[in-house]
Amino acid sequence: MRVFVLGGTGSIGGAVVRELVARRHDFIGLARSEASALRLTQHGAASLAGDIASPERWTKTLPRIDAVIHMACDFKSDMAAIDRRLLDVLLPALAAQPVKPRFIYTGGCWLFGATHGKVTTEEAPFDPLPAFAWMVPHLHRVLAAPEVDGIVIHPAMVYDGAGGVFQRFAREASERDAVRVVESEAVSWPLVHRDDLANLYALVLERAPAGSSYIGAAIEAFSVGQIARAFAKRFGTRTLEPEIISADAVAAELGEWARGHARDQRLSGAKAQRELGWQPKHLNPEHEIAELA
Ligand SMILES: NC(=O)c1ccc[n+]([C@@H]2O[C@H](COP(=O)([O-])OP(=O)(O)OC[C@H]3O[C@@H](n4cnc5c(N)ncnc54)[C@H](OP(=O)(O)O)[C@@H]3O)[C@@H](O)[C@H]2O)c1
Fold first, then answer.
1. Does the C-beta of 94 come closer than 6 Å to ligand 1?
2. Is the pTM for the entire model greater than 0.85?
3. Strand ranges (DSSP E) for the chain?
4. Whose CA is nearest to atom 7 of ligand 1?
5. Less Cβ crowding at N or C end of the chain, within 10 Å?
6. For residues 190 and 221, is the Cβ–Cβ distance under 8 A?
7. What are the backbone angles phi and psi of residue 183, rounded to the nearest 5°?
8. Does residue 72 line the site of ligand 1, with CB under 6 A?
9. Longest distance between any two alpha carbons in the chain, whole Å
10. pLDDT in tens, 21-66
């Protein structure tokens, strides 16, 4: 397929474009800087210069495509307005495509509430973190848009070695006396390695029915205390005992969105495994942390 990728240089997008190349899909990546264009072309892809904040500048020059994968977000205070305008302009522009394209929209685990140990599936009502509440009407809009066959992926917390959501743990384990966790070390996160998630995006692209949604969780729940202790052990931090900080403190330090770190969730990726044959391979993050170079 010929895929137009938004956010192809990001934490999730970088893995997705590698998976697309491995599966012999063609892709064109939107690039807002020369550095991003270079990173995309290093994968052998074409790039289209443009910013999601000014879609009217590049949507008229879109080539023929079979699908759009949207994973772009700049996490600034105007991210909701930028995404709304992007959909306002991009969806009607896609009506000019000769064949109705698939449109994969990226939601996230933080659109679901705290689950308090209960397993949550795609059927659960949304209870979004306020900073990301705007995503809910946007994903409904994509699913209902007549111009595209919309599908939504809700990634769990995405890690990769000492990167992604593990980056902060790794940094603190090397720089501080203790690794910090938000509110409690018993808080559990659903996890997915970014290569497994990239494989899910490809399966969704190739097989998912229009109008469907999938939670991308390879591990339903994993306690942040276990993650913090594994990094402290691997880096020889002075104490293995995590330091507890409040959600208010992490929001003041990183932004309101970071309150999600205190969300205790258990999310199931069983639907993607059952319907699409998704088989995540990275299921033991503690072992992977211990093996880090
Ligand atoms: N990572 C997770 O654990 C996680 C979990 C659940 C959901 N999600 C969702 O997944 C999406 C992607 O997350 P991520 O972690 O991959 O983010 P990321 O690593 O920060 O990547 C963001 C991507 O968006 C691009 N981008 C940002 N602003 C742009 C703009 N104005 N114009 C064009 N491109 C722009 C960036 O391009 P440049 O390289 O040019 O900066 C980059 O490719 C977000 O919506 C996030 O909420 C993430």
1. no
2. yes
3. 2-6, 26-31, 46-49, 67-70, 102-106, 149-155, 157-160, 163-164, 180-182, 188-193, 213-216, 219-223, 243-245
4. 108
5. C
6. yes
7. 70, -50
8. yes
9. 61
10. 999 999 999 999 999 999 999 988 889 999 999 999 999 999 999 9
